[in-house]
Design goal:
By secondary structure, this protein is an alpha+beta fold. It contains twelve helices and 13 strands. The protein folds into two domains: about 190 residues, no CATH class; about 100 residues, Alpha-Beta Plaits (2-Layer Sandwich).
Length: about 300
């Protein structure tokens, strides 16, 4: 079984310790001091070039043993591709059609994927088939023209002053554009749907190495209480904010921690508290908003 998640987490932990790399990457990704892009880590581990090397190539050089053990995953990640896709359904397959190149990719892993979707994701190509990343953003099809127009404008500007390369090669070299447009649209959608917050769960996703260490960290904190549940490992966090008490939940799953709140303001308050008590053993992945309908 191909396991991208574990290898991606290993690479993320590795590069997080390289302060010079992180600093240079953040300067390239963020246009101002507000680091509000959810897609930074995905871009960092897949596409950022440091001294003309991808992060995965640096990781491979310094972790030769892991490379030999996970060579297929390494090669697939190293040659992966992020874009916007339409999902097409045939009698035998689910197919992703790249909206820029019109290439079709037969989807190998599709459990939990929304059918008939327009989405932004990364694919790992193996022969005539592809594996899809766990990092997916879904959009209404009305946004397709917006994304295509924005990317093609950048592509035409590039070709007018530099080499006349194909659109696929351009996107591979400039995947940061895909992620940044993704962030911008997410922010716009969030502003448009602020009145619907009551129907959503606001959550932050973290990863970690040692589940036992995380459990101890949570269970010794006086503001965090373990909740009995047959299906999930859940903790309730209660903090005093101004003259009121705000309540959220922490859900643990293997190497993943979900911090959940009723609104974005409370979530940011919980994130600061969690960062202060975790002492660097939690690595932030992204923020997301999940509708109640998706949780039922």
């Amino acid at each position: 079984m191909i396991d991208f998640v574990s290898l991606k987490n290993d690479i993320l932990y590795f590069v997080t310790s390289k302060k010079n790399i992180i600093l240079e990457a953040k300067e390239a990704y963020y246009s101002d001091e507000k680091e509000n892009g959810n897609n930074f880590n995905e871009w960092l581990i897949h596409d950022f070039m440091y001294n003309n090397e991808k992060i995965i190539e640096i990781f491979k050089r310094e972790n030769a043993g892991k490379y030999e053990k996970n060579k297929l995953e390494y090669d697939l990640i190293n040659n992966s591709y992020v874009s916007f896709f339409e999902m097409l359904i045939t009698p035998n397959n689910l197919i992703l059609k790249d909206v820029f190149t019109n290439k079709d990719y037969i989807l190998e892993n599709y459990d939990g994927i929304k059918e008939n979707s327009f989405l932004r994701t990364r694919i790992y190509i193996k022969g005539l088939k592809c594996y899809i990343s766990d990092d997916i953003s879904y959009y209404e099809t009305e946004y397709k023209a917006t994304f295509k127009k924005a990317i093609y404008e950048k592509y035409n500007d590039y070709c007018s002053i530099s080499d006349n390369i194909g659109i696929e090669e351009f996107i591979k070299k400039n995947s940061i554009l895909i992620y940044k447009f993704n962030d911008i649209i997410d922010e716009v959608i969030g502003d448009m749907t602020i009145d619907d917050e009551i129907y959503n769960v606001f959550q932050s996703i973290y990863t970690f190495k040692n589940l036992k260490e995380i459990k101890i960290l949570l269970e010794v904190d006086e503001n965090i209480v373990f909740v009995e549940d047959e299906k999930e490992v859940i903790y309730r966090i209660s903090l005093k904010k101004d003259e009121s008490i705000i309540i959220g939940e922490i859900v643990l799953e293997k190497s993943r921690l979900e911090l959940e709140a009723r609104n974005q303001i409370d979530l940011e308050y919980f994130k600061v508290y969690l960062d202060n008590i975790s002492e660097g053993i939690l690595i932030f992945i992204k923020d997301e908003v999940v509708s109640i309908d998706n949780l039922l």
